[in-house]
Amino acid sequence: MINPRSKLAAEFFEHGKLKSCPIFNFHAHMHDCFGLFMPRKTPEGMIQAMQETNTLMSFFCGHEGMLVPQVGVQPDIDAVRKYPDYFRSYHIVMARYLDVQADLARMRQHADVFMGFKFHGDWFEVPITRDDLKPYWEYANEHHMVVLAHTWGTSKYDGPDQVAQILSRYPNVVIAGAHGFHDAWERAPEVANAFPNYYFELTAVLDNRGALEMFLERARNGSRQVLFGCDLPWFSLHHGIGAVLSAEMSDEDRRNIFYRNGVRLLKRYDWFAPIWHARGSGESIDDICRLAPAPK
Amino acid sequence: MEFFDCNVFYGLSVAQSQMLPVPTVGQLQTALAEAGVAKAVVWRIEQHTGAMMTANRVLAEDIRGADNLYGTWSILPSHTHEMPAPDELPPLMKANRIIGWRLMPKMGRYFARAFVLGDYFKVAVERKIPVFISTAHGARPEDLEDILKAFPQLTVVLTYASDWPSDRAYRPFVKEWPNLHIDLSYCIGDAAIESFCQEYGPSRLLYGSNFPDCYFGGLMQMVRHAGIPIADREAIAGGNLGRIVQEVRLD
């Protein structure tokens, strides 16, 4: 049952996936990672997980690009080229070993592969506001990109103050704030209310019952500023979906989180509309944008 | 599919910030019913962060007459004689719907070692009383190894809360000790259930939510739609825990 007040919960619990409520997973990885046993870490394994839940696309930053500079992002490019209907990638900003010219040239060359950048201030122990990262933010701003940024509430590298600084400097960038300022949950709605281009991303949020409810209660735009993600292939899509179904909100909120906000953000990319028309819920992009208008 | 949750608590913590606490057993019952969780093994947060012996007593009072709830008592080393001796506990447990023991070494300020709690574990093995051990409560893997080496037949429900995905940490324990079971509360990895079952079968996994810190529905959805036979899913959802509870001998 999961939640007697939700028709979606009843349907997902029964069927596991719904054609009428697809999922976009805005936080994913791929391949090998030092501390993790992941049974389905390949593109093919991830697609299997996605098909089980009608997750239309996952937006990822491969572990190799984040962890093995010598290998870099080529495996990410290969995965998107092989499965363009299922994946797009965030190009890692390897803050400890920057090669701005090469990275931006790669972004231009593979504009259909990379939808934005991934920043991980805590991992590299480099503030996302550091001067030498400016070219990346400027590029993302110029191209109106979605950027996935690891954001932790207590961090001096990617905490609320650093994110607010970036959002005020680069108004065309959409930041999917991964983990929603974990441990300083009250800061996420504050940032959301100040910056309509900030999104509360749910990876590692949903194992803290109440954090999402707090955001929905305090953020002026509510669920229209939330994106679904689960760190696939780390964590189960079923688990993330079940948690959203359990949390207190309306089914309209859930649809916003699962796919409507995604459609609204992704329509900026040329590659998106054909994928949506082929595999989406059947609703038009315009209708969805009317149902879930952009945050103000 | 009937869900029998192996890890549910309620009450109010004065030491930890709780986002959406569930203060009373009545509120817990409402939440269980709404989620469609038929039964649960429960404890009070005050058994961890409050006064353990008092909270043990209050838990027993709370669940009196609640046919769907099964309590677990926190235990303390018998050297300080703060609770009845281990061999005196079974009749008290039977009278109070208590089916297991829970280790809280961090807040209880004791060492979770065989030589410290051995008199409990001896009784637990004889009477098939499950011992609930969570790394979140201060038990370390080396403690678990020490306990299970001394009492290899002990029935343990392990909540491995330290890192996740954590298969590399807990699978060796599963392989080595046949009565060790895994509470799925923190096992939320993609295909974690399927992969585990391929290696060890379904009998060692128990549905657990860690409610109210986590939602009931995350693991419910994972278990219900795991890519394994329906009988295995039913066992994980509730059958395995039902068997463990059934085997407890308190007479």
Describe the structure.
The complex is a heterodimer of chains A (296) and B (251). With 296 residues, chain A is an alpha/beta fold. Chain A has one domain (7-291): Alpha-Beta Barrel (TIM Barrel), CATH 3.20.20. Chain A has helices at residues 7-15, 43-53, 63-67, 74-82, 100-109, 121-124, 134-142, 160-169, 187-194, 211-218, 237-246, 251-266, 272-279, 285-291; strands at residues 23-28, 55-60, 87-92, 114-119, 146-152, 174-182, 198-201, 226-227. Chain A has an eight-stranded parallel sheet with strand order 1-2-3-4-5-6-7-8. In chain A, strand 3, helix 5 (100-109) and strand 4 (114-119) form a beta-alpha-beta unit. In chain A, helix 1 packs antiparallel against helix 11 and helix 12 (251-266) crosses helix 14. The radius of gyration of chain A is 18 Å and the shape is globular. The mean pLDDT of chain A is 97. Chain B is an alpha/beta fold and 251 residues long. Chain B contains eleven helices and eight strands. Chain B has helices spanning 25-35, 46-49, 52-63, 89-95, 105-108, 114-127, 141-150, 167-176, 192-200, 217-224, 230-247, and strands at residues 4-10, 39-44, 69-74, 98-102, 131-134, 156-159, 180-183, 205-206. Chain B has an eight-stranded parallel sheet, with helices on both faces. In chain B, helix 6 packs across helix 7. The two termini of chain B are 31 Å apart. The interface between A and B is large, with 42 and 34 residues.
Feature tags:
heterodimer; A: 296 residues; alpha/beta; 14 helices; globular; B: alpha/beta; TIM Barrel; eight-stranded parallel beta sheet; 8 strands; 43% helix
SSE run of chain B: EHEHHEHEHHEHEHEHEHH
Q: Structural class per helix/strand content of chain A?
A: alpha/beta
| C-alpha end-to-end distance of chain B | 31 Å
The count of strands of chain A amounts to 8
Any idea what the radius of gyration of chain B is?
17 Å
Output mean pLDDT of chain A: 97
Question: How confident overall, as mean pLDDT of chain B?
Answer: 97
Q: Work out the helix count of chain B.
A: 11
What profile does the largest beta sheet of chain A have? 8 strands, parallel
**CATH fold category name of chain A:** TIM Barrel
Largest interface: A-B, 42 and 34 residues
Q: Write out the strand line-up for the largest beta sheet of chain A, numbering strands in chain order.
A: 1-2-3-4-5-6-7-8
* Fraction of residues in helix of chain A: 40-55%
DSSP E strands of chain B, number: 8
The oligomeric state of the chains shown is heterodimer
From the alpha carbons, calculate the radius of gyration of chain A and give it in angstroms.
Answer: 18 Å
Morphology of chain B: globular
Largest sheet of chain B: 8 strands, parallel
Q: What letter string, H or E per element, gives the SSE order of chain A?
A: HEHEHHEHEHHEHEHEHEHHHH
Distance between the termini of chain A: 35 Å
